[in-house]
Design a protein that fits this description.
Blueprint: H1 14-22, H2 25-39, E1 44-54, H3 83-95, E2 100-105, H4 115-127, E3 131-135, H5 141-150, E4 154-156, H6 163-169, H7 175-187, E5 191-193, E6 196-198, H8 204-215, E7 223-228, H9 236-243, H10 251-264, E8 269-272, H11 281-289, E9 294-297, H12 309-319, E10 322-323, H13 327-335
Parallel strand pairs: 1-2, 1-9, 1-10, 2-3, 3-4, 4-5, 6-7, 7-8, 8-9
This protein binds S-adenosylmethionine, 6-(5-methyl-2-OXO-imidazolidin-4-yl)-hexanoic acid (DTB) and iron/sulfur cluster.
Length: 336
Amino acid sequence: MTFESSPVRTDWTRDEIAALFDLPFTELVFRAAEVHRANHPANQVQRSTLLSIKTGGCPEDCGYCSQSAHADTGLKATKLMDPRAVLQAAAQAKDHGSTRFCMGAAWRNPKDRDMPAIVEMVKGVRAMGMETCMTLGMLTDAQAKTLADAGLDYYNHNIDTSPERYGEVITTRSFEERLETLEHVREAGINVCCGGIVGMGETRGDRVGFIHALATLPVHPGSVPVNALVPVKGTVLGDMLADTPLAMIDDIEFVRTVAVARITMPRSMVRLSAGRESMSDATQALCFLAGANSIFTGDKLLTAGNAGDDKDAALFARLGITPMAAECKVELEAAE
Ligand code: SAM
Ligand code: DTB
Ligand code: SF4
């Protein structure tokens, strides 16, 4: 398959991005759909599966996260899983049609003593023919190289929100530290997966700043997860939303965010991520029209619920969407 690819720009200005957000809704979605079709197969959606390989007790204070030790969510902390159990879960995900397995640990950063088990997981999942992704917190350049040598395909590390809002959501690490880890990952030759969360009570200006930060990275992330906040009781932001339900993101504004991500980062996979469980089929359909072309499958994300395979199979059938094969990415790269 060949595509008439859109030019990839990393010099977007905030004004240009704000102007996209301001377009009449159908005009914005139409433009995003055009960019999507010029760069990706229109009715194919990639499926990735998540596994929490080390849950809870995290020293970071991310205001949205059920796994932060600063939150009071009642979540039980666990140790790092045995690689054999991880490989069993990956085999099950593959049986269910997933092509990428994403392993997440509730760490500020991995300790060097954890790396051998992590490397075993990456090698094992890769040997099954699935793409691998890890999200383990901050990495040194040496740790990024170790992961690259193990064959890791993607590393997820989100900027989460605009640089100016960041300090209100997380105080234990800085936006700049996020960028440093992304640089280590890029320099090690691992594909970057980087996005964030909307619906945290941020302003439109923060959403502009969030997309601007992603679209002006030296290289666009290969995958851009757009999460809608899953409000968890006992977290700062979950409790804030329970008190002020009006702060919850409206579906149309969520679709606008997806559309602007698609237009500004034409070649990236835009992933409709957390929060899908509480979205209507119609909203998800609008997201796919606006250029989202990847989802998380299975009935669990890391700790929160997800739509589940049966619901997703029904949604795909209803919309005439087919699952994207892993090779598709290779075709896209070859078309460049
Ligand atoms: N500890 C690692 C880190 O922060 O980089 C990896 C795991 S962390 C759970 C991965 C991402 O999940 C976060 O950056 C955030 O964007 C997303 N996330 C976490 N909790 C969420 C929630 N309640 N709703 C939506 N997205 C969430
Ligand atoms: C991402 O941006 N979203 C995924 C993945 N990267 C690791 C995680 C979503 C987590 C949702 C809340 C939970 O399951 O605890
Ligand atoms: Fe820890 Fe990641 Fe949750 Fe932040 S998002 S508290 S770093 S697990």
